[in-house]
Amino acid sequence: MLAEDDENIRRRAVDKILELRSEASATTYMESPTLESSRKDVVQQFKVPKINVESTYLYELTNLDSIKDISQPPALMELDDTSIAQMLTKPLVLQHPCHNQAVERHVKLVTEAASVVTGYEREMA
To answer: pTM of the prediction?
Structure first.
């Protein structure tokens, strides 16, 4: 939602992230440095949220207020509140490409390699 062109949608995202951050800083595990560091090492259990199939906007797909134990996106954890707030005027652009031609080549290579060694009988290449 932070990458949307519509400023109203970005505002919803910024408000929600800042709200989550303020709630996290108010909890007891964030007040203790030892608990905070151990909290980062914990893998969160992913729960599939209920999807609104009649939604017309991305932010209507799920009701974020009804989800318990929601956290901010991992890609934004290193950004400070000022950087998050600046996304109201300028949409988010991640500097880490996740899908490019090199990825496509590796997907093909891994798929071919996996097909050689899967199943009851291995093919010898």
So the answer is: 0.56
